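Incident log, entry 3
Record: Alanine glycine permease (483 residues)
Problem: checksum mismatch between cached and fresh output.
Input:
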Amino acid sequence: MTSEQVSGHGAPTGGGTGTLTGSAPPEEGYRRGLGSRQIQMIAIGGAIGTGLFLGAGKAITKAGPSLILAYALAGAVIYFIMRALGELLMYRPVSGSFSEYAREFLGPFFGFVTGWTYWLFWVVTGITEVTAAATYVQYWWPAVPQWVSALVFTLVLYGANLISVKLFGELEFWFSMIKVTAILGMILIGAGVLTLGFSDAGETASVTHLWADGGFFPKGLGGTLMTLQIVMFSFLAVELVGVTAGESVNPAKSLPRAVNTVPWRIALFYIGALTVILSVVSWTAFEPGTSPFVAAFARIGLPAGAAIVNFVVLTAALSSCNSGMYSTGRMLRDLALNGQGPKAFTRLTANGLPLLGTTFSAALMTAGVWINYQWPSKAFDYVVSFATISGMWAWVMILASHLRYRRAADQGRLPESTFKAPFAPYAGFVALGFIGLVVVLMGFDPDARVSLYGAPVWAAGLAVAYFTIKARNPDTFEGGPPR
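Fresh output:
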């Protein structure tokens, strides 16, 4: 299949076409160093982070066993989003991904806003993850200041991202392998406790914990709904596979396969793991800020197991921060290539790495060190809400771009994708409505409400920047009307 190649400004480049399995557009200049094995694990690891390992502890206290249902509903929406992204990726696999699609189908302003907002998302997420990592270090060394650990992790991951994209892929592969192995181990051990009754928790472990301790909805339906922000944060980064498209060795094969793993990933790693944990230990035994995995191992009577899980969740946090280092440099370069960011960000190293963009982003991530110094106990809650609102914007743009693309393809104005999203366009409207519900619910949460105050300020700043750049250089945002 061929797809219309779009220039940096969203207009067709001389009517040329490019094959799906071919190289990235000439102006990208990246090395295609990510193999199918690495893409698969990046996709899996993207859905397993601090939202599950740390944030789930707070969500359990708010919703009880009904949190399982919240993850199931949100997981279905995430699948719709990823299938929409998959169809777009098979239409045109580029490293700019969401901002490129928004630029092409919604107009240059939305491409500009999406690129910079997704960059902000990963900067804030990097702060979130390094905050979580610093929290996990205190499990072994409580005397070490949280901000010191945050600084060390930021510097180490920054250095790792300056070597090669292949090293990034290998780090993510092994980070993800550790997370997957740990969750599978937790499920198997928990299943053993439930069926064989061994360990300290064997006498009390029972699936009746899912409904006996106040019912399946112990805090009511409202309590379940109020966890949706935490649940959606857990899934942020599943779309990272789209950013890797420009550096994937064989995007036509690896990307659809990665997208299609979403349902079983969610079913196993979220629904399966939480069902086992909440059956082994009653939801009333968990506390906010404590990993439910660590708490479950401690209750089972395997202190070494708790230490192992703490190590695993540490690697999960570092994995997400590593992904943030990777994606921010690419997003800044895409913006710069389209005249929507400083030209210095277009430069690549001899290894095909966006050095200046990565350096600039890493420097801003050191703000996490200051946050950990000022508010060590509240750092995670503060930054989660900012990450959630900015990350969900990327999902909205994916869905809106997909709706425009599907309409153009159905009318014969664009080539059909070989990886069509099911239930389109209705699934897209359902997903957009669900995201809208989450945003409304965030307004009722004092911690999450902070992001709703900050979002308009960020949007206003982007609008001023957009029109300023457009006034100085109108050609920067030239292109055809939205499709």
